[in-house]
Write a structure and sequence with these properties.
Blueprint: H1 12-16, E1 20-23, E2 30-39, H2 43-50, E3 60-65, E4 71-80, E5 90-98, H3 100-113, E6 128-129, H4 134-141, H5 147-158, H6 162-173, H7 175-199, H8 204-210, H9 213-239, E7 241-247, H10 253-261, E8 280-285, E9 288-294, H11 295-301, H12 307-321, E10 325-331, H13 342-350, E11 357-362, E12 377-378, H14 387-398, H15 412-433, H16 439-457, H17 463-470
Parallel strand pairs: 1-6, 7-9, 7-10, 10-11, 11-12
Antiparallel strand pairs: 1-2, 2-5, 3-4, 4-5, 8-9
The chain binds guanosine-5'-diphosphate.
Residues 247, 249-255, 362-363, 365-366, 380-382 line the site of guanosine-5'-diphosphate (GDP).
Length: 477
């Protein structure tokens, strides 16, 4: 499949692609379960299963029939003829009762009906099961969504906090794409200017100066910076902050975790490899997911366990190595003098090199101990004192700007593309600021900055990138 996205390629996927079918709702029992088909010429398939012609975009209640005309279930059938559908192709949705066996029967019935010659109409070419993300991939290839929006669909489904879900909704509605497209269009204007100057080199500097190329580029640079700052917030909402909890036994690590969790428990999305609750927990602060790995559980297990468990522990250590910060908890009532004691030095030595360590002194309510430096974080997991300051410190560590509005979800891939674009723009600005402008190099930098932005929305998207992005979706989406 080629990655020609945009108005020119509308229908490209639809014309060449096999029709696909999948159960679109989550596995398990529910009130409603949906089987979804996308492809061209689905009218005949709809007739075979529903025994009637379906009006476009109308809900039809009736029976879904098996090959002998006996009902499999009763439900709603919806038909969205191309191009006015999610994928841009014909889409048929069968909303049945949400039983796993029933939905498999309905799915099998679709595959079977596609092989029948209905009313002398052509058979459907090779209706097959959809790959993960294939419906959304077709929506992208048919110009219904750009790549950043398609990614936002997955992020919306995967969102672990309300703030993450809202930011994914904004990206899906196009907030991120619009910003990128505006930058993109500005760069097109500048490229045209520089390319034109290339054709009339005798005028070069004057021409660029009169057109205020440097000023325009500076404005693109500033806008790109602002977009990057917002995208960083969005990436944080998507990825969350990985925190390691360290400290001696009985200093209050579990109590602190519980206190931080309070009513703010996030829907748990375990860090890969750390599936056991006692080792990794997910909470949230102001909607920013916070994944906490408790090293105590790991140490206790080091000797014990079978191979699988040891493998799990090894993976947890790998996750620790990638953490954003370490919360090193101390017992204020036992702190005699500043500095770590021998046991704490041993713990500190086992932490990943270069980790950002946040020292936290717990049990403030006991009112004892010489205590650390005045600026140290003193808290009580018991009565909650100092927890707000700790939460602020954690958000600060993550680079979160409290109260940031209009955050849209973003991914590492987007940040990398924005940074690449910014680097080329910086280089172009430096050239324009110099006396003798090397026009070819300037043009090249603008082109590269432009391409980097195009990679975000998928104007420039290699096939292997599409495979990576859509392969991580759930089936039926
Ligand atoms: P961990 O081994 O580091 O996970 O420590 P725990 O959270 O299990 O706490 C050890 C003991 O210290 C328990 O008896 C807790 O009730 C107590 N504890 C924890 N935090 C506080 C605190 O802030 N103040 C007081 N007074 N006791 C605490």
């Amino acid at each position: 499949m080629t990655a020609g996205h945009g108005v020119d390629s509308i229908g490209a996927a639809g014309r060449g692609a096999d029709p696909i079918v999948a159960v679109a709702t989550a596995a398990g029992r529910g009130a409603v379960g949906i089987v979804r088909v996308s492809g061209r010429g689905l009218g005949a398939l709809a007739r075979a299963i529903c025994a009637r012609d379906l009006q476009p975009r109308h809900a039809h209640y009736g029976a879904f029939l098996d090959a002998h005309g006996a009902p499999i279930d009763h439900g709603l059938a919806l038909f969205f003829p191309a191009p006015h559908s999610y994928t841009g192709e014909d889409v048929l949705e069968l909303q049945a009762h949400g039983g796993p066996v029933l939905l498999q029967l309905l799915l099998a019935r679709c595959l079977e009906a596609a092989q029948e010659r209905i009313d002398g109409a052509e058979r459907l070419p090779r209706l097959r099961l959809a790959r993960p993300g294939e419906f959304t991939e077709r929506a992208f290839l048919n110009g219904k969504l750009d790549l950043a929006q398609a990614e936002a669909v997955a992020d919306l489904i995967d969102a672990s906090t309300e703030a993450a879900a809202r930011s994914a909704g904004r990206a899906l509605a196009g907030a991120f794409s619009h910003e990128v497209t505006r930058l993109h269009d500005e760069l097109v204007g500048l490229r045209v200017l520089v390319e034109a100057t290339l054709d009339f080199p005798e005028e070069e500097i004057d021409f660029l100066e009169r057109a205020d190329a440097a000023g325009r580029l500076a404005r693109v640079d500033a806008a790109l910076d602002a977009t990057l700052a917002r995208a960083k917030q969005g990436a944080l909402l998507r990825e969350g902050l990985k925190i390691v909890l360290a400290g001696q036994p009985n200093v209050g690590k579990s109590s602190l975790l519980n206190a931080l969790a309070g009513a703010e428990l996030a829907i748990v999305t375990p860090i890969p490899g750390t599936t056991r609750d006692r080792i990794a927990q997910s909470l949230q602060i102001d909607g920013v997911p916070l994944h906490v790995i408790d090293t105590a559980g790991l140490r206790a297990d080091t000797q014990a366990g079978d191979d699988v468990e040891r493998e799990g522990i090894a993976r947890s250590w790998a996750a620790i190595a990638e953490s954003d910060a370490v919360l090193f908890v101390h017992d204020l009532s036992r702190v005699g003098e500043p500095g770590y004691d021998a046991a704490e030095r041993a713990i500190a030595a086992s932490l990943p090199a270069g980790a950002a360590v946040i020292d936290v002194f717990n049990k403030l309510d006991l009112g004892r101990g010489a205590g650390p430096a005045a600026e140290a974080l003193r808290i009580s997991a018991k009565d909650g004192r100092g927890l707000d300051a700790l939460r602020r410190r954690l958000l600060e560590q993550a680079g979160w700007q409290p109260g940031a509005e209009d955050v849209f979800v973003a991914r590492g891939r987007h940040l990398e593309a924005l940074r690449r674009s910014a680097a080329h723009i910086a280089s172009a600005r430096a050239m324009l600021a110099g006396g003798q402008v090397p026009l070819e190099l300037l043009a090249e930098d603008l082109r590269a900055a432009h391409d980097a932005l195009g990679a975000i929305t998928g104007r420039v998207a290699p096939d292997d990138l599409l495979g990576l992005i859509f392969g991580r979706f759930c089936i039926g989406k």
